[in-house]
Design goal:
The chain has 383 residues and is an alpha/beta fold. It contains eleven helices and 16 strands. It has two domains: 10-193 and 365-382, Rossmann fold (3-Layer(aba) Sandwich), CATH 3.40.50; 199-363, Rossmann fold (3-Layer(aba) Sandwich). This is Glycosyltransferase family 1 protein.
């Protein structure tokens, strides 16, 4: 945690600030990519209705940080970023300039708690009513930490910020947050949407030639993707269902050594694929397995299902993706026997037709349909 100190800036021009931790080289994918894209869309739509500046604040800055990730994306979006539009914060002793009409858009729980201290100082110094803090929430972050101080502080980010506006990545996550009793002033929700880079390949799904291949989302270093359970399930499947001995198992996600199963069979890792190679792999495989210990739906099972793979994932609390697409089976247990049985059942359907009906929410063109409402409410706050 950092005790940021505010340096007042005289300008009354409204400004919206994206606050991201570290922003290290090579992190321009997944949640970081979504955060930057959403922020730039928000800037564009705000500027269509009012005059407003923007700024990137990188906290936890190190020599491995790369603010160019933001500037390059901004340029592609038609936004010019000058050096004055970037603030690099290395420690809690660094000062941050704050205007009377600065609104902050935070990326995770600790930037949310730290920036709230700046908003408190802004409110007192400029004698104004507190402005809302906008927090992009892409998963339930307290679960990233075992029961601990960090776990409790991550919860406090949802419970102690007076004017918290959350943007939640999926209604599944929103339902889970509500289930736990967190109460924010405002919530905006968007459902996951197919990547623009994968969308052109969807038209190739009906004519694709499927092979006896299982694609698994393998990330051994990411606990919430349940790699040990995935391996145990596949070993049980290889042992108990020898009729599928001619099937190949491919692991995409994070590169790792081959994982032995039974005999000379193994899980072969292809690491992190380019989007073109990933699409090609999706078009060839017949079965997909992607586990996620989280209320967030995760993108791989949605992609696998829409690309025609019989997809096995797991339920979690109020999450059940079997209603999202006809190709998805959501198992209630990831113990080795039921997981192996689900994989075997999917393999047994090889060659039979799969559901080709897409989920309209996932295939929509507008990634962030709530933006018009958010822009209107921000504009009203600044009026």
């Amino acid at each position: 945690m950092m005790d940021f100190k505010m340096v007042p800036e005289a300008s009354e021009m409204p400004r919206i600030n994206l606050v991201m931790p570290a922003l290290t080289a090579g992190s321009d994918f997944g949640g970081v990519s979504t955060g930057i894209e959403l922020f730039l869309r928000l800037v564009r739509d705000l500027r269509a209705s009012c005059q407003i500046d923007m700024r990137l604040i990188v906290t936890d800055y190190t020599t491995q940080s790369d603010p160019g990730i933001f500037t390059r994306r901004a340029e592609k979006a038609g936004e010019t970023v000058s050096p004055e539009d970037i603030s690099l914060v290395r420690s809690s002793s660094d000062n941050i300039t704050v205007r009377k009409n600065d609104i902050f858009f935070t990326y995770n729980w600790w930037t949310t708690l730290n920036i709230q201290k700046l908003i408190d100082q802004q409110t007192v110094h400029f004698g104004r009513s507190p402005l809302p803090l906008i927090y992009l929430m892409q998963d339930y972050e307290p679960m990233f930490h075992e029961f601990s101080s960090s776990h409790m502080l991550a919860r406090e980010a949802l419970d102690t910020v007076p004017r918290l506006w959350t943007i939640l990545n999926s209604s599944n996550l929103k339902n889970f947050v509500d289930l736990l009793g967190h109460r924010m002033e405002r919530s905006f929700v968007f459902e996951p949407v197919v990547s623009g880079s994968l969308r052109p390949y969807l038209g190739m799904v009906p004519a694709s030639q499927r092979e006896k291949k299982i694609l698994v989302y393998g990330r051994p270093t990411v606990e919430r993707n349940c790699f040990p359970a995935l391996v145990r399930g596949l070993r049980r499947w290889a042992r108990d269902y020898p009729e599928y001995a001619d099937w190949e198992i491919i692991s995409a996600g994070t590169e790792h050594p081959p994982v032995p199963l039974v005999g000379d069979r193994e899980i072969r890792s292809v690491g992190k694929l380019s989007l073109d190679d990933y699409a090609d792999t999706l078009l060839k495989c017949s079965v997909g397995v992607s586990l996620m210990a989280s209320p967030h739906p995760s993108y791989p099972p949605l992609e696998m299902a829409h690309f025609g793979l019989r997809t096995i994932t797991n339920t979690y609390a109020c999450k059940d993706l079997s209603s999202f697409h006809g190709n998805i089976v959501s198992v209630r247990s990831i113990a080795e026997e039921p997981l192996a049985a689900a994989i075997a059942q999917a393999c047994a359907s090889y060659g039979q037709p799969v559901s080709d009906e897409g989920n309209a929410e996932y295939l929509r063109e507008d990634s962030y349909p709530f933006l018009a409402q958010l822009v209107a409410e921000i504009t009203a706050e600044l009026a």
